[in-house]
Amino acid sequence: MNDKNNYEELRKKYPIFIGIHIGAGYHSTKLRASYKHCIENALEKTLILLYDKINFILLESQVNTGINNKNNNKNNNNNNNNNNNNNNNNNNNNNNNNNNNNNNNNNNNNNNNNNNNNNNNNNNNNNNNNNNTNNNNNNNNNNNDDDEDKNYGIKNNNDLIKLKKQFINSTWIVENVITFLEDDPLTNSGTGSNLNFDGMVECDASIMSGEFICNCNNNCFNQNNNNNNNSNNINNNKIKRICGGGVWSGVGAVSGVKNPIKLTAELLRKQLHKGNTKSLGRQRPMMLVGEGAKEWASNHGLETFDSKNQLLGDPLITQQSNVNWLKYKAKLENYKNYKDYNQQHQEQQQKEQYNEDENDNENEEREDLYDTVGAIVVDWNGDISSGVSSGGIILKHLGRVGEAAIFGAGCWAQNELIVSNNNKTIKLPGVASSATGVGEQLTRSLISKECCLKILKKKFIDTAVKEYFEDNFLSHNDCFSYVNDLIINKLSPPSSLKSQKTKNEKEEEEEEEEDGEEEYSNSNIISNFTGSGRLGGLISLKKETNENGEIEIEFLWAHSTETMGIGYINSSISSKSNKPKSFISVNNSNLPGFNFKISSKSFKLIKKYL
Q: Do 468 and 385 lie in a common domain?
């Protein structure tokens, strides 16, 4: 976009927040600068692409409006000419009739002529007045349209509707920022992905829109109509439930598709705008894998290629990814040749891996990366979306699907919700998460969904995520977590004793929660977990709209790995700088997988109305 002032105006009218992550694991000092540049590059390109797209749509609408105005003026002129011709014809007919009448009766003819002339004059005046009035009204309407287009139509939300029709929203932003990350050969997604055991690229990805889609035909997410739902209930005090669902789509173990995130985004749009069912009651797919996913992508105009072409090869395989594959394949062969290799060198490897005093050269050679990339976005409408994309772990089995393609594990998003129920207004904040790490561990814990659920239940996002990592993720309390709840309920005292909690005790608990939020923010949490460690990380946000209509966002990142790449940008006028921020979050503990780092930052998203 060449016009800097125009760019700034669009940035103020259509503010967005983007948070992204690149992997979790160990990033060497040499790679950290490259990862920061990769993050900033993706954020900058996304912002430029977004506002260029918005500007193009608005300018195109102006041109179309101008053409319509010209057509309207032409139609008005044609109508005026037709009216004049009709008036002239009527006058001629009247004159002819008058002449005929003059031959029969002069006195009567004179009177009739006067009456006819008067009537003709009156009719002509009325027609002219009507034509002038219509012309003035049309001109006024055209002028109003021009004014709205010059101001981008913000007051009447005309342009918001235009952008929505073009699918320019938080989901589109997630799709494109992850596309830029996929195209960067540094990341383990799209181009540069890890190779499976057979030396092939198989990618996973998913995306989720936080929009509430009602499937019960009661419009239950509309706060104005919510009180009318379930009107047949005899008990008026009964809580009126809402059906639930955002829209999610995913692809797994897909080869031959340049950008897996674009495939998932197209799947999601089909669900959003064409519904869940197809002809003859068939279900529209929300997840595709393997060759079926590639075929669907090709049929819907997405860029595909023959990944098994012996002449051209797979364009997603880079020189570095091939070198890594050869290195780890050789290590695996050595392990098979020396069965006692792991036992002999296990203690030595652990010392080398976690020794804080190891030299820089040893650090530079070690790269333990689980570089799933992901993003969460809040747009100018307050809508939330999240997404994730990954090439999976190196030397994975053919057809293996990781957390990036699993519902509730790779990403999660839910818009802010306000409903009226039994004359009470209930408000839930918007939440989102995108996760990275060892796929099987993240899948078992459904990390993104469960973490968002914790955030909804807690006052502070820091406290919620801390509790999730301690009580769920690192303690392996996932698959059968409900068993613990059942046992606790069986062993807990009767409800009569529970109700004896004093008001002071509850206040003390709230104070402890607030203190905990301050204490654990930007610090390393060290716990005494036993068993196998769990390597994972996520970015999350909590979004609420205050009384002034400002969107308040709490952005958080947490990881049990040694490092994790983080980036964010806030294009709102509330931000001192709309430049992207990037850094490598470091967990300074010497026991990754058994402790975690957690930090957060607050933002405001303010839309400027002109």
A: yes
